[in-house]
Design a protein that fits this description.
The complex is a heterodimer of chains A (about 80) and B (about 400). With about 80 residues, chain A is an all-alpha fold. Chain A is built from four helices and no strands. Chain A has a single domain, classed as Non-ribosomal Peptide Synthetase Peptidyl Carrier Protein, Chain A (Orthogonal Bundle), CATH 1.10.1200.10. In chain A, about 55% of the residues lie in helices and about 0% in strands. The N and C termini of chain A lie close together (about 10 Å). Chain B is of the alpha/beta class and about 400 residues long. Chain B has two domains: about 240 residues, Peroxisomal Thiolase, Chain A, domain 1 (3-Layer(aba) Sandwich); about 140 residues, Peroxisomal Thiolase, Chain A, domain 1 (3-Layer(aba) Sandwich). Helices cover about 35% and strands about 20% of the residues of chain B. Chain B is built from 14 helices and 15 strands. In chain B, helix 4 packs parallel to helix 7, helix 8 packs across helix 14 and helix 11 crosses helix 12. Chain B is globular, with a radius of gyration of 20 Å. The chains are: A mainly alpha (about 80), B alpha/beta (about 400). At the A-B interface, helix 1 and helix 2 of A face helix 3 of B. Chain B: One of its GO terms (cellular component) is cytosol. Chain B: GO terms for molecular function: 3-oxoacyl-[acyl-carrier-protein] synthase activity. Chain B: This is 3-oxoacyl-[acyl-carrier-protein] synthase 2. Chain B: Belongs to the thiolase-like superfamily. Beta-ketoacyl-ACP synthases family.
Chain lengths: ~80, ~400
């Protein structure tokens, strides 16, 4: 991947802000989507669709349900 | 009308239209005779014979929070904006969720979403669709989102009857309150159908004006040179309430929603029945339902869409069902035709006319057509008399659906 972890985090922050209204600054690696950011499963689908466009990485449904934290998504996109 | 029947009152108004983003700005524009019809510049305009429309004065996506707006079809955005205005205008009534209902309709539903989602699906695959595609395109979506927003549990409905949809919604809401299912119902219509396919399809039906050199003059109900309707967009929503509930909370009462009448032409899928039998029946039933006489009706906000076939038939029917005395106007001369939204915004205008005792003039009439016996308000606005008067809103739809709602001054 060409993008650094910091670049991916910023991109993800922008996507999550666009979809949920949560400030991008609150999107930090340790945050849980459900427990900390209050993001529901359909919003996660929206985020995954937008992330595919932004980073060119397909996130299959069976993988998506395992991505619990922002860090999980960062790792998935980087690998 | 039985003496002990529940009476329904109007306590809140909301609208977003081609001439204003709320009721106040819209009503001022109508009284000033301003047209909201303008040349459009979308990329599809070169492929259709109609190059203008009544686009919304205020983009609803700019009014709503971004995360909310992106999950809503434009018809749902309009509906939520107007519903929130109406709800605040009514003083945000305290009502138990199981006594609160919603009836909000559109003629076509989320067609912009349907078409753009189809493009996404074809070009990029199913998994690039928003998970909200279905609730964006379903025609009950506007009602459902308003119901969620307000926590309504008494029933959330969407009556669909093309351009009569908004008026039918208000009638259905009145019946919900009268039958004891709800104390408060938010009702009206919304539409966001300014898209190349819709314009092409209505043009194919030879129903639209093609006065491309004069967009603001294109919607000209009852004028001899009228050549079809002008497509508009937006929403009109009202808060209906049982009189008892409204009085108990000290609400401001705009008007009584006194009666509703329905009929079906059973004549032709798009053409009006030339004798106006169906619309006479709807108006007569509405007056009976309101328990008033034709002479009590001083104003009619007509359906009159500026089509050669429909406008004169309607006012000839008004003369037969109500009389030649009411002051008749078509606000579509300024807003264009909002299809399923028409009954919503035009009910708002009928109620404002009763409240302020003034009828906005129909614009663009330079040569009144033959065969018209009623008083068409044009040239200048006209005052309505003081006292206990009623006004009527007519809405008719493709399919032969007719709906008439009667409002009475409070």
């Amino acid at each position: 991947m060409a993008a650094t972890e910091q670049e991916i985090l910023e991109g993800l922050g922008k996507i999550i802000n666009e979809i949920t209204g949560i400030p991008a600054s609150e999107v930090t690696p340790e945050k849980s989507f459900v427990d900390d950011l209050d993001i529901d499963s359909l919003s996660m689908v929206e985020i995954a669709v937008a992330a595919q466009d932004e980073f060119g990485v397909e996130i299959p449904d069976d993988q998506l349900k395992n991505l619990k934290t922002v860090k999980d998504v960062l790792n998935f996109i980087q690998n | 009308m039985s003496a002990n029947r529940v009476r329904v009152v109007v306590t809140g108004l909301g609208a977003t239209t081609p001439v204003g983003g709320d009721v106040t700005s819209t009503w001022s524009a109508l009284l000033a005779g301003q047209s909201g019809v303008k040349t459009i510049t979308e990329d599809w305009v070169d492929t259709v014979p109609v190059k203008f429309a009544g686009t919304a004065a205020v983009d609803p996506a700019e009014v709503l929070p971004r995360p909310e707006a992106r999950r809503l079809d434009r018809s749902e955005q309009f509906a939520l904006v107007a519903a929130r205005e109406a709800w605040q205008d009514a003083g945000a009534p305290g009502v138990a969720p199981e006594r609160l209902g919603v009836v909000v309709s559109s003629g076509i539903g989320g067609i912009n979403t349907t078409l753009s989602a189809y493009d996404t699906y074809k070009e990029r695959g199913w998994n690039r669709l928003s998970p909200f595609t279905v609730p964006m395109l379903m025609p009950n979506g506007p009602a459902a989102w308003i119901g969620l927003d307000l926590g309504a549990q008494a029933g959330v409905h969407a009556t669909v009857s093309a351009c009569a949809s908004g008026a039918e919604a208000i009638g259905y809401a009145m019946d919900m309150i009268r039958s004891g299912r709800a104390d408060v119902v938010v009702a009206g219509g919304t539409e966001a159908a300014i898209h190349g396919l819709n314009v092409a399809a209505f043009a194919a039906a030879r129903a639209m004006s093609t006065r491309n050199d004069d967009p603001a003059g294109a919607s000209r109900p009852w004028d001899r040179e009228r050549d079809g309707f002008v497509l508009g967009e937006g929403a009109g929503i009202i808060v209906l309430e049982s009189e008892e509930h409204a009085r108990a909370r000290g609400a401001r009462i705009y008007a009584y929603a006194a009666g509703v009448g329905y009929s079906a032409d059973s004549h032709h899928i798009t053409q009006p029945e030339p004798e106006g039998r169906g619309i006479i029946m709807a108006m007569t039933q509405a007056l009976n339902d309101a328990d008033i006489a034709g002479l009590d009706v001083k104003h009619v906000n007509a359906h009159a869409t500026s089509t050669p076939a429909g406008d004169v038939v309607e006012v000839q029917a008004v003369a037969k069902a109500i009389g030649t005395h009411p002051l008749v106007t078509s606000t579509k001369s300024m807003t264009g035709h909002l299809l399923g939204g028409a009954g919503g915004i035009e009910s708002v205008f009928t109620i404002k006319a009763l409240q302020e005792r003034i009828v906005p003039a129909t614009i663009n009439i330079s040569d009144l057509d033959d065969g018209i016996e009623v008083e068409i308000v044009h040239g200048a606005n006209r005052e309505l008399p003081a006292g206990d008067i009623a006004a009527v809103n007519n809405s008719f739809g493709f399919g032969g659906h007719n709906a008439t709602v009667v409002f009475q001054g409070a």
